[in-house]
Amino acid sequence: MDKHCPTVKISKRGRVNEGRPSSYKPEYCERVIELGKQGYSEAMIAQELDVALYTLANWERAHPEFLAATTRAKELAMAFFEQKGLENIGNKDFNTKLWEVQVRCRFPSVYREIQRTELTGKNGGPVQVSEIPDADLLAIIGRGN
User: Fold this and answer.
1) What is the pLDDT along the chain (145 residues), one digit of tens a residue?
2) 0.85 surpassed by pTM
3) What residue spans of the chain are helical by DSSP H?
């Protein structure tokens, strides 16, 4: 049986895989932090620990110290990418577009570009809105009779 595709068992209380022993080990906290220092993503950390992404989420809910470690790892991964960007300022061979996509996608709360459009009326006042009868509108756009 493939350990990444275990058989799903439903308990009498309707819970999935209730009672299955966890493969969590407290030493994973230190490993996760070290991986974060190397810029690893959540998916890469799950791969290194040989577990599924949902297992990491389950461990975060069940073990506060693991949640703290993964939170710290994400901060360290962001610092890793920021450091790479700083180290390569002026390097014509550095793929700045790839770097930009990485930080925007992986750290959107910090690197999201927000565009806002604001409409104002005359002298910065409110936009004046009025209704035009259909016949007048058609005449304005050149479809009137």
Assistant:
1) 455 555 556 666 666 655 567 899 999 999 999 999 999 999 999 999 999 999 999 999 999 999 999 999 999 999 999 999 999 999 999 999 999 999 999 999 888 888 888 888 888 888 888 888 988 888 888 875 5
2) no
3) 28-37, 42-49, 53-62, 64-87, 96-106, 108-111, 134-140
**Cβ–Cβ under 8 Å, residues 41 and 49:** no
Beta carbons within 8 Å of 80's beta carbon, 6+ residues apart: 36, 37, 38, 39
Q: How far is CA 106 from the centre of its chain?
A: 5
Q: Which residues of 44-81 are buried (b: 16+ CB within 10 A; e: fewer)?
A: ebbeebebbeebbeebbeebeebbebbeebbebbbeeb
27 C-beta neighbours (distance < 10 Å), count: 8
Q: What is the DSSP letter of 91?
A: -
Query: Coil, helix or strand for 10?
Result: strand
Q: Does residue 26 contact residue 65 with C-beta atoms inside 8 Å?
A: yes
* 114 phi, psi to nearest 5 deg: -110, 125
